[in-house]
Each structure stands twice: as structure tokens, then as C-alpha cells.
Amino acid sequence: MTTARAASELELSPIVAGLWRITEWNLSVQERVRWIEQALELGITSFDHADIYGDYSAEALFGEALHAAPGLRGRMQLVSKCGIRLRSTQRTYRVNHYDTAATYVRTQVEQSLRNLHTEQLELVLIHRPDYLMDAAALAETFATLTREGKVAHWGVSNHSTSQFALLHQHHALATNQLELSPLQMDALDDGTLDQAQQLGLRPMIWSPLAGGRLFSDEDEQAVRVRAEMETVAARLGISLTTLAFAWVLRHPSRPYPITGTRRVEGLREAVAALDVSLDAEDWYAIWTASKGHGVP
Amino acid sequence: MTTARAASELELSPIVAGLWRITEWNLSVQERVRWIEQALELGITSFDHADIYGDYSAEALFGEALHAAPGLRGRMQLVSKCGIRLRSTQRTYRVNHYDTAATYVRTQVEQSLRNLHTEQLELVLIHRPDYLMDAAALAETFATLTREGKVAHWGVSNHSTSQFALLHQHHALATNQLELSPLQMDALDDGTLDQAQQLGLRPMIWSPLAGGRLFSDEDEQAVRVRAEMETVAARLGISLTTLAFAWVLRHPSRPYPITGTRRVEGLREAVAALDVSLDAEDWYAIWTASKGHGVP
Amino acid sequence: MTTARAASELELSPIVAGLWRITEWNLSVQERVRWIEQALELGITSFDHADIYGDYSAEALFGEALHAAPGLRGRMQLVSKCGIRLRSTQRTYRVNHYDTAATYVRTQVEQSLRNLHTEQLELVLIHRPDYLMDAAALAETFATLTREGKVAHWGVSNHSTSQFALLHQHHALATNQLELSPLQMDALDDGTLDQAQQLGLRPMIWSPLAGGRLFSDEDEQAVRVRAEMETVAARLGISLTTLAFAWVLRHPSRPYPITGTRRVEGLREAVAALDVSLDAEDWYAIWTASKGHGVP
After folding, report:
1. What is the pLDDT of residues B256-278, one digit of tens each?
2. Which parts of the sequence belong to the NADP-dependent oxidoreductase domain (chains A, B, C) (predicted)?
3. Which of A122, A208, A224, A278 has the fewest other C-beta atoms within 10 Å?
4. Rounded CA gap, C247 and C257, in Å?
């Protein structure tokens, strides 16, 4: 069983589906069940959530589908995140802020479990690096919730190498979920992907399509990148989306890219990237277009 | 006895008094004795010096008071720094520069001992990272001066993570004294505070009031921060100074902030921060005001 | 014999000669032999190459000299680099890019061996950090080529600390070849030189004269640095070139600076730096001129 195996070593599907926009999809429960089934049929068995997505309401929409079709849960891995206190109508904070105190992490994890109608999450990430994180205390929270069977693995998202190292020293983290795309390449140079490789941990990658900007932005960088990618995609006979996922997947850290699309065709385009062998020249041609200059 | 305990593990008072401006205070010896007594009565038992403060004359002013009231020394921890060759009337260097060679460190430490009328300094810091530092040789200097009983602990100030790691590999350092304030937050992101936590070392913090700019600067950042802090301070019924210290103390590295004030009321306001429980929302509201944008 | 000793521990001559411009020197084979002999007589026994220098033709020019005067090879250490696919007339890549796959590294190393008429290279460096590097696979390539006797030591060039650490974890690297000069001081602050010292590895330094810009550039920084260096050089009775090498050599990482000159007098000026004791004040005066402000 996936959950049992995950307890020893985290394994996600090579493409992960992200649900941060599910509230905008306006799907009925049955449509959501169907969408999940189609994802599973494509081999997308890992689903990436966060407590705050859709103004704290996204998880529950997904959970309704799991409740309506109980057979689905056993075929998937559920990932969620917590640690952000986001202003919303019910939460009138003065400013958005982070909170990694035991109480809040526990509250949010248990809420995610209820939302998703499940007993356990395969993976929970601290969404953003909290300057006020007490690493030892947070590790204790991790250990307790793991002991209670509520969370199988823990990780972080958007953490620098030193932030990661600090928490990893107290509790073995499974991943760092980072942004990487043909339009956003900071992770190539800031050491986070090097660190992941050094630790043998596969990063998750958010926004491999730069949140859609890859297709729509008209700034110089996007125009350059799109032109280069269209040339490569045409030669390889694949879509721009497939190429973007192939570009991310080409990284030696063996990343898990997340697709945020509702369209089943979009999922299919992401999965198609698993069959693309992008050569170094094409990879660097896209890098070059993104930077606006050649490699040194 | 404090000194004996310090030999095994460095312990400073939760608020440290900094003497870098003592030469501007124009206090008689008896007034200095009285000032020290008042600090001690407030629980401020650690005093932060540097060889170069007050154009190399600050330590001696403090030392005169210790000489006049010999009972004081046993109730305090003395911290000093060396490693900068600062131009002055007696020192006509072409440029300010650093020197961490054995001869210079020894000379300056022994001068600090004489200035402060003491046999031992609880802690000596290398004031700035010296690009020409020979880490192995400097560690040998540390070890020799420790063996001679002249210095109990060694540390550094303003060192990057890699500079710290290099010297720490050769001699166990006790602290990195860093700048942190509501107006200067680089240490939150450059890894130095993460490193301190990973090593279990409590950082010292200089200029928690941004050298007074927090109260007086009229630039956009300072105006924003002051407005936010005045709101929080009013709600908590504390002064702006107390809030600034509470903001620094809230960091999980358990920092030792340094107050540089002559005013006993100022010392009291710093110490009052030890009783303030700043919540994460207020802490991040100040962060947000300082950055001019919310957390990501 | 040098080669045998190098197999256990890499040792280069304190000044290294770089051949990246040899194709511009227009020397006959006998002139190249004479140039090498003069370098050796000056104690410059290490020669720095790369597969791509001179549009992939530099190594062969040097190799012709070794072939013509077979006694030379045993008196020197050969360094080369690979990993860049540079566009050229024979190589019509769409963009310059990197390639650290086993096939390409092997092909280039074996080509370097043929070009240089030698059985073994004392040191081969990965020329630039390849984002697509598979560290474990590359380490395996290193091990295989070492086992075959083709390369004694491996290193990298221009790698960040995390890039270095990743590969070093898989195969012990001998050096990181970095840029450092009075006009380019990034390596002082980016951690690479700290890392080298922490690992006890001596860095190689390229462009200690900033590629000649030190003498010719008219921008503000170069003018300031030249003025300061001329003052120091005049006082010490040395040339600007000697001073630049002395400035680099003063760094505690014990760097191996590379001279790229054809002129024997230029080699002599570089070697003369080994007898210069630059004091910290002069070193920092040059730093100050380069930065345009004093040390903090």
C-alpha cells in the first residue's frame, strides 16, 4: 500500500497535481471525482494542497470528492502545507504572517485531515520560512503528529539552504518545494537544488509554467523564452507545456513538478514530458533565452 | 563565580550594555561607578567593549571605574573586540584595515586587560572578518591566550556563515555579534542567524535601535516602521525602545541585544523588554512595515 | 618524479602559466620550446590549459613543443579543463552550453591527452558549473579515467560553494579555479575562498591582472586602483604586475595564480611576487581603492 511504503520513504508520482486553484474550477462533486479519476489514470497519484488555498476552502472541495468516492483515497498521496496565517474574511489579521508554533501547526493539520476526509497526510510542508520558527519545538510537533499517525513525512517549501539545514538537523525533511520554470531560475543558483541533491532529496517544483506567464506575458524575457521554446517544441513535436515540464524534469535533482491545471488535456501534456529526452543544448538554449545572454 | 562558570559555558546577561559611546558621556569616575552599579542592579551584568571605541580610549574610562570600585568586577562579564586598525591621531595608517595576526591580537587583548584593570576578559571577539585571517594561526593565538588565562571565550562579529565556519573549525567560537533591528534585517535572511541556531550559539545583537535612527530618521522606511511600532507600543503600554528590544528578543536564536545608552531609564526600557510577550502578528507587522510589503 | 607525487597530493608551482592565448602568440615550435624552457627555469612548472582555448587549438600548439622536446614533459604538471561546448566553425551549436556527461568528458580528456602528447594530465577541471551535472555519474567518470591512468587529480572552476560541495561529496576535488584580482574581488565575499581554506584546498586564480584591464581600463575603479597600486609598487620598488600577483598571493588560501603572458619578462614579474611581503595595510589600501570605500 502506498501509505505504508511512504512511511519509510516518500514516493510521489513523477507529475504532481496542484489544487491551489480548485475553487475557481466550479466543478460539481461528481465532476471533481471524475477529474481525480482521470488524473489517476494518467499516473498522477500525488495531489498538492495547502490549508490556505482558495481562501482556506480548496481542501474541502477535494475532500468532498474523496468522501463521495471512497475508493480514491487509497490510490493517491496527499500533500498539504501549513504555517501561513493569511488574512481572510474570517481571519482579520492586521498583516499576513507565519506561525509555526505547535498549536497552529496541529490545528491546521487536523483541519486538513477533516477537510480531506482522511486519517493521514503522506506529506505536510511548512509553507514559508518562519523567522520565528523554533526548530527544536517544531521538530517535536512533527514527531508527535507522526506518532499519532496523522502525517507520514514532513518537508518545507521556499526555504533557503540555511533555513532548510536548521530544521533538517532536528527532523529529517523529505523535500523542499521550490519555484522553478523557464521564467524563474533562481533555484539553479541559490544553492537550494544543490542542497537537495547533496542530501538525496527530490525537490517538488511549483509553477513550472510560471503561473501561466510563460504563455501570456509580453515582457522581453517571456517573449524571448516563448520564441525559443516554440522552436524547440515544434522540432520535437510537443506542446509548449510539455516542453516546460521536460525542461524542469531534465534537472538532475529529479524534481517532482506540479501542474495546476484543471484541463485533463493539460495534465496529459505534463505527463507527456516524462517521455521527452531534452538534450543539454536545448535546455541551455532555453536558459540562454531566459537570461538574455549566453553561459559564461 | 561568574568567571569560573563562563570558562565552561559562556553566559551573558539577557541585556548587554555597550560602551562604544562612553567617551561622549562626560561622566566623572564616581558617576561611571554609579552608572555601572545601576546597570548591575537592573540585571545588566555584561558589558560590551572594543579596543577602538572612543578612538581607543573608551575601555580605559570604564576601567577607571572598576579600579575605583574593585567590588564591581566580580559581578560582571567583560566583552571586548579587536582586529581593526583604525586611523587615529596616534595611528596614522593610510587606510583603516584589519589585522588578525598573533602579534596584534595579543597586543590589543593585553591592552584591553590593562585598560579594564582586569586579569581576564570573559569574551573577546574578532571585530570584523579579516580577508587575510590565517584561521589556524588565529586559533593558535586564541588557545595560547586562553591557556594564559587572559580570555575565557572567543567569538567574532559581523562574520558571514562561511567566514564563521572557517574559524569555528579551528577554534570553537562562542558567538557571532550581528546587527539586527527593525530597520536592518539582513541577518534574518543571510543565514547567520540560522547558523547560530544550528550550532546552538546565542548571537549578540548590535544596534537594536539602529543607532538611534529608529527615532529620528525621516526616510520612508523609518517613518513606516515608527508608525507601526507606535501603534503596537501604545497597545502594549510600552515604550518604542522596549518594543524594539522585544522585537529582537523574540527571535528564536535567543539573542543578547546590546543597549548603548547612558541613560539609566534607557537601560530600564531595554530590560523591560524581557517581560514583553510579542506575538507573531505584531512581530511580522513590524517586519512588513520595514520591508514595505507583506510576507510572500 | 612530479607526476608520481601528484598522484597522492596535487602540487603545482607557486605561479602557474596559462595558455589560453597561445594561439595569438604566433610562435614557431622552437620558440614555444624555448618559452617553456624559460618558464621552467623561472620555477613555473605548471601549465594551465583548456580544451576550448584558442577555438580548441591551443593545447595542440603546446603539445607540438612537448613532442619536439620530449625532455620537457617530465619537468612539468599539465592542467586542462573540459565541460564547455563552445560554438566554433566545426561546432555549430545553436548556443554555447555545458556538458558533463561521461561521453563528453571522456572524449575531451582523451583529446587533450592527444593534443598534449602525454599519457596523463596531472589535473583536469570542470570548466564551469553545469546545472545538468549528475554528480554521482560524473564522479564515476572521474574514477574511471583516474583508474585508466589518464588523469591524476580532478577539480572544478568557477563553482559556487554549494556546487563544489555537491561534487566534492562524490569525488574528492583538488581545487576550485576562481577569478580574483584587484579589480574583481567577488571570491573574497562569496564563500568560495573560505570553503577552499576550510577544506585545506589551494585555489587556482585566473586573471590576477583582470585580463589586462588593470593596466588599460579607464573606468573609475581601474583608475583608483592603478593610482593606489602605483604608489605601493613605487615604494616597494616592484612593478604593477608583481604587485598584483603579490596581492593575490597574500590571501591565506595559498592560491596558485595564473599568468597568461607570453613575455618572459612578464613571467619573471609574476615570479618576483613570491619574494614580496605585502603588509596588511597595503593589501587593504588596494582593497579600499577597488571598492571605493574603506572597510566597515
Report:
1. 999 999 999 999 999 999 999 99
2. 14-286
3. A224
4. 10
* pLDDT (0 to 100) of residue C77: 98
Mean pLDDT over the full length of chain C = 96
Distance CA A70, CA A64 (A): 10
Does B280 sit within 8 Å of A135, measured CB to CB? no
- C-beta atoms of A294 and C96 within 8 A: yes
Residue C248 near residue C278 (C-beta atoms within 8 A): no
The residue written with cell numbers 490556505 in the block is A52
- Model confidence pLDDT, tens digit, residues B74-85: 999 999 999 999
The band of A3, judged by pLDDT with boundaries at 50, 70 and 90, is very low
Q: What is the pLDDT of residues A191-203, one digit of tens each?
A: 999 999 999 999 9
Instruction: Enumerate chain B positions whose Cβ falls within 8 A of a Cβ in A.
Output: 161, 188-189, 191, 194-195, 197-198, 250-252, 280-281, 283-285, 287-288, 294-296
Tell me what pLDDT residue A9 has.
83
- Do residue A135 and residue B252 have CB atoms under 8 angstroms apart? yes
Per the CB < 8 A criterion, the answer to whether A269 and A201 are in contact is no
C296 vs C290: CA distance, rounded Å? 14
In a domain, A118, yes or no: yes
**Confidence band of B90 (pLDDT split at 50, 70, 90):** confident
User: A252, C135: Cβ pair inside 8 Å?
Assistant: yes
CA distance readout (Å), A197 to A175, A255, B18, C136, C167: 11, 10, 44, 10, 10
User: Has the ipTM of the complex gone over 0.90?
Assistant: yes
A123 — pLDDT class (breaks 50, 70, 90)? very high
First-to-final CA distance of chain A: 48
Q: Is B104 a catalytic residue?
A: no
Could you say which of B197, B280, B287 has the minimum Cβ distance to residue A99? B280
* A121 domain residue, yes or no: yes
What integer pLDDT is reported at residue C8 of this predicted model?
Answer: 54
Q: What are the chain B neighbours of C250 within 8 Å (beta carbons)?
A: 132
Shortest distance between the Cα of B36 and any Cα of chain C, in A, equals 29
Considering only CB atoms, which chain B residues are within 8 Å of A166? Answer: 194, 197-198
Distance CA C120, CA C109 (A): 9
Number of domains in chain C: 1
- Choose the closest CB to C160 out of A191, A280, A296: A191
Chain C positions touching A294 (Cβ under 8 A) are: 95-96
The residues of C that are catalytic are 53
Q: What is the CATH number of the domain that holds C104?
A: 3.20.20.100
Task: Name the residue range of residue C40's domain.
Answer: 2-174
Mutate to test the interface with A, among B161, B190, B193, B198 (most CBs of A within 10 A): B198
- The residue whose grid cell reads 575531451 is C108
- C242 falls within a domain: no
In a domain, B12, yes or no: yes
